[in-house]
UniProtKB/TrEMBL annotation:
Can bind about 5 Ca(2+) ions per subunit. Ca(2+) 2 binds at D161. Ca(2+) 1 binds at E202. Residues 107-272 form the Peptidase metallopeptidase domain. Zn(2+) 2 binds at C86, H220, H224, H230, M238. The active site is at E221. PROSITE patterns: CYSTEINE_SWITCH (PS00546). This is Peptidase metallopeptidase domain-containing protein. Keywords: Calcium, Hydrolase, Metal-binding, Metalloprotease, Protease, Secreted, Signal, Zinc, Zymogen. One of its GO terms (cellular component) is extracellular space. Residues 1-18 form the signal peptide. Its cofactor is Ca(2+); Zn(2+).
Length: 286
């Protein structure tokens, strides 16, 4: 009896340790995947990285998430890290510089044209194709209403500006791979690449409280397609976390201001075109 008790306690202690190492490793992976830590540190445990580096990364994440920036991996922080989210990093590293910048708008390029075509190259098995077509069109329309962009679906085999695909796990790009149900829901590449991918393993739904709402995630990913990075404003469409189905989902003033500010610099009328060219040449925008 005594021996069994010792064995049981030993198993419980072992399991607790295993869990704590595992969540610690997960946290490191999360912080490196989403720009808070050097990506090379993503596969290590916190014990191999300086405590100060980890604390600063956790504190940066907490600030972004609107939590108290204690630098400690407390329960609330772990809960936030477990929420479903977009796979695009929150902080974009500036080339070889160690300086981290929250706002990637100066770094990312922008579309030079305003009439963009799109194609859905790979549909999901979770929804009818016609429903996907409709939700994707609605998501583009949301951005169309506040910009000069015009999005047109392309049915022919010809190359479109924006390719949309439902993919699983590793699927041939440099972003963190999809990870099965939950966690990463989708990701997209900044202009002028035009790639938006959705995780096929999510329970995609339309206007339902259960599952993952395709319209909401698509609207977010198309913000990246247009050059926006993540916003720290909680109700913004460009927040990185997916907070569940919202009946009245629409662009927030923060999203509208950011896209309009960006477009104002990029698509001037021809009178300003040379001025913009000169400013770009001397590095004013980058
Ligand atoms: Zn995102
Ligand atoms: Zn991808």
């Amino acid at each position: 009896m005594f021996l069994s008790l010792v064995l049981l306690i030993s198993v419980l202690i072992h399991q607790r340790d295993a869990f704590s190492v595992s969540s610690d490793t997960e946290a490191m992976k999360y912080l490196s995947n989403f720009g808070y830590l050097d990506p090379a540190l993503g596969d290590t445990s916190t014990s191999f990285v300086s405590g100060e580096t980890v604390r600063r990364a956790i504190s940066d994440f907490q600030s972004f998430a609107g939590l108290n920036p204690t630098g400690e991996l407390d329960e609330e922080t772990s809960i936030w890290m477990s929420k479903p989210r977009c796979g695009v990093p929150d902080i974009i590293h500036e080339g070889h510089s160690t300086r981290r910048k929250r706002n990637a708008n100066k770094k990312v390029s922008r579309w030079k044209k305003k009439n963009l075509t799109y194609r859905i190259l790979k549909y999901t098995t979770k929804l009818k194709n016609s429903d996907v077509d409709r939700e994707i069109a609605r998501a583009f329309q949301m951005w169309e209403e506040v910009t000069e962009f015009k999005f047109t679906p392309k049915m022919t085999e010809k190359k479109a500006d924006i390719n949309i695909r439902f993919e699983s796990r590793i699927h041939g790009d440099d972003l963190p791979p999809f990870d099965g149900p939950g966690r990463i829901l989708g990701h997209a590449i900044f202009p002028e690449s035009g790639e938006a991918h959705f995780d096929e393993e999510e329970a995609w739904t339309i206007n339902e409280t259960n599952g993952t709402d395709l319209f909401q995630v698509a609207a977010h990913e198309f913000g990246h397609i247009l050059g926006l990075d993540h916003s720290e404003v909680k109700p913004a469409v460009m927040k990185p976390i997916y907070d569940g189905y919202e009946r009245d989902f629409k662009l927030h003033a923060d999203d509208i201001q950011r896209i309009q500010r960006q477009r104002h610099l990029v698509l001037p009328d021809y009178g300003n075109w040379y001025l913009i060219k000169i400013l770009t040449a001397i590095g004013f925008f980058y």
